[in-house]
Design a protein that fits this description.
By secondary structure, this protein is α/β, with parallel strands linked by helices. The protein has five helices and five strands. The longest helix is centred in the middle third of the chain and has 16 residues. Bound molecules: adenosine-5'-diphosphate (ADP).
């Protein structure tokens, strides 16, 4: 049983979101905190300079609204959207916020050649806490 569970959700609306949430709840101790985290990939400066001003804020806002919709019925879940690099940012967030478990999907459903996708593999390898991988 865990007290502070992090559930990373890919921005292109993970089809395993429901499953991840159900697993996070099943692994929760009473009163546990569950956080759904989406990392919006940071753009290199040379691309950012070509985008209209405020574009990244707009994207982050849209992603946040999408997550809120997905989790509208889940008032036990805190939603976070952060700009960064997916695996590194998930790992940093978990450490900085004292997560004791990360629930993550193994890869995108249509890419079944790999046992673990690149983000999931890095999280499994480097996390300082337990990681539950959805297959
Ligand atoms: P693939 O390499 O097949 O795309 P990934 O390892 O990127 O697989 O994705 C596996 C899981 O990692 C996703 O289902 C999601 O849980 C998590 N994940 C991937 N990218 C992000 C992201 N940008 N923000 C939050 N979670 C992510």
């Amino acid at each position: 049983m865990y007290n502070n569970i992090l559930v990373p959700i890919a921005a292109d609306h993970d089809p395993q979101t429901e499953e991840a949430l159900a697993v996070a709840r099943a692994l929760s101790a009473e009163g546990a905190k569950i956080t759904a985290l989406t990392v919006v990939e940071a753009m290199p400066g040379y691309i950012l300079s070509q985008l209209p001003e405020g574009q990244m804020d707009k994207t982050r806002h849209e992603v946040e609204e999408g997550l809120k919709e997905d989790f509208a019925a889940a008032d036990d879940v805190t939603i976070k959207v952060i700009e960064g690099h997916s695996a590194r940012t998930i790992l940093d967030y978990a450490e900085e916020h004292g997560a004791d478990c990360i629930v993550i999907a193994s890869h995108r459903p249509d890419i079944t050649d790999y046992f673990l996708g690149s983000t999931a593999a890095r999280v499994v390898r480097h996390a300082q806490c337990a990681v539950h991988v959805l297959r």
